[in-house]
Design brief:
The protein is α/β, with parallel strands linked by helices. It is built from 17 helices and 16 strands.
């Protein structure tokens, strides 16, 4: 009989007053006893609503049943059938809006901790590698496929195609593979050795990865076809930062969240043995309310700053995961909600001194149910800061669309795809992830990578 406890088995965490000065992982992961207890809560529902909520179709009840039986390696193998990056997904997926959001146990309590169990299985497998028999490499079909970008969509597409026997090469613009997983998500949420291990697992499948390869600059998509690649998948992400267009955004001490997080995560500016410059602020304002804003704020806190998150709507409207907001508050970060910046102020040397804001209120909901934030007259005030981090959204870099004839984009610069969501307007070119949707989640990008692999396989077989 399923364990009828109402709430999830708690996840052990480092104490807030310790972790807000440390770059080590915040969540410590389940013990075997924790995993067994949590897995026993699964009702193994007949219609498997949790699977319907997973963009990559993980066989959730099946893997949880194996965890409940103590067969942790078998559970991991079941996850890996459809998910190329389980250690990543177990840490950063918004499970509350996807698989766990569909869990029947959530009707009268908390859903089963599916993400926590997925992470446990991945971590267990990593620490018991001797129990994992290496699979034989699939027989090569000799067909070359190019993947542009080594983020979650690119890695997933590459892995699925390699399993089908394709000769896959991933072209990554930066010097380390992983895309947003390495440049955007901090060490304390997703340790970089976890990402490296997942990338190495793909290399063992035969996937080649070429770093420092900017497609659209060093090679074009047309060049790739001329070199014998029979299809190209574009998973180049959405790395072009957005700004508000307010006065003072060019002052010294204003960062885009992308730049700030890249310096911290990929270029290791937080370490004393690295020379990457980053501002060690006394007081930082982070503008935005998404997961990227939470990541930037928590990084700035670990660099010693007093941090304020400025968001123009209320906390209820914040797009960030509740867990991330909770962790940020625990770590001593202030939330200035219903507040909107109007100007960044600087001294005579161009250095940030303060940010001018207006207080906001929410109007009645519109037809979509969204409440518009409107300024309160006469509510202007200055918040003294020496650093401002803009986390107000990103869009795809225009380089590939500018150098690829026949590749259509929408007004936001995102690649246009057909009804399947991955076939572009250029024959033989497929796309997915943030390059198509704009900034979204890791797991949605992975789902697009899987769909693209199927579409490419179908295209090649019909072409032949």
């Amino acid at each position: 009989m399923a364990n009828m406890q109402k709430y999830k088995t708690p996840m052990p965490e480092v104490a807030p007053e310790v972790r807000n000065k440390s770059w080590h992982e915040v969540a410590c992961g389940y013990s075997e006893a924790d995993a067994l207890n949590e897995a026993s809560r699964c009702l193994n529902c007949k219609h498997k609503p949790c699977v319907a909520g997973c963009p990559v179709g993980v066989k959730i009840p099946e893997f949880i049943a194996e965890v409940s039986a103590g067969n942790f390696i078998k559970a991991y193998r079941i996850i890996k059938e459809t998910n190329s990056l389980p250690a990543v997904c177990g840490r950063v997926c918004p499970q509350e809006n996807q698989c766990e959001g569909k869990c029947v146990r959530g009707i009268k309590g908390e859903p089963v901790g599916i993400g926590r169990l997925e992470r446990f299985c991945a971590d267990y497998a990593a620490s018991h590698a001797d129990e994992l028999k290496k699979s034989d490499l699939p027989a090569s079909n000799g067909i070359k496929i190019a993947v542009v970008g080594s983020g979650p969509s690119g890695l997933t597409c590459a892995g699925d195609l390699a399993k089908l026997g394709y000769d896959v090469t991933v072209f990554e613009a930066l010097h380390t593979a992983g895309g947003v997983l390495v440049y955007g998500i901090p060490e304390f949420r997703l340790p970089k050795d976890i990402v490296a291990a997942e990338v190495n697992a793909l290399k063992e499948l035969g996937v080649k990865i070429e770093c420092d390869m900017v497609i659209g600059r060093i090679l074009t998509v047309d060049d790739l076809f001329e070199q014998g690649y029979e299809a190209v998948f574009i998973g180049s992400g959405a790395g072009l930062p957005g700004f508000l267009g307010i006065p003072g955004e060019n002052a010294n001490g204003v960062y885009s969240a992308n730049e700030f997080l890249t310096r911290i995560n990929l270029m290791k500016a937080y370490r004393e043995d690295y020379n990457t410059p980053v501002r060690r602020s006394h007081r930082t304002a982070v503008v935005g309310g998404g997961n990227v804003a939470m990541d930037a704020a928590r990084c700035a806190k670990r660099l010693g700053a007093d941090v304020h998150i400025i968001y123009r709507r209320s906390e209820a409207e914040m797009p960030a995961r509740r867990e991330e907001v909770h962790h940020a508050k625990e770590e001593g970060i202030s939330f200035d909600v219903l507040t909107n910046p109007t100007r960044i102020n600087a001294d005579d040397k161009g250095n940030v001194t303060s940010i001018t804001c207006m207080k906001m209120e929410l109007d009645e909901p519109d037809a979509s149910g969204r409440r518009r934030a409107i300024e309160i007259a006469g509510s202007e005030f200055d918040l003294e800061v020496d650093t401002v981090i803009m986390a107000v959204g990103t869009s795809p870099n225009p380089l590939i669309r500018m150098t690829t004839p026949g590749l259509n984009t929408n007004r936001k610069g995102c690649l246009v795809t057909m009804e399947d969501g991955v076939t572009t307007t250029r024959e033989g070119v497929y796309a997915g992830g943030d390059a198509v949707t704009g900034a979204a989640t890791v797991i949605l990008a992975m789902g697009a990578g899987k769909d693209a692999a199927k579409a490419i396989d179908h295209y090649i077989k019909n072409k032949k």
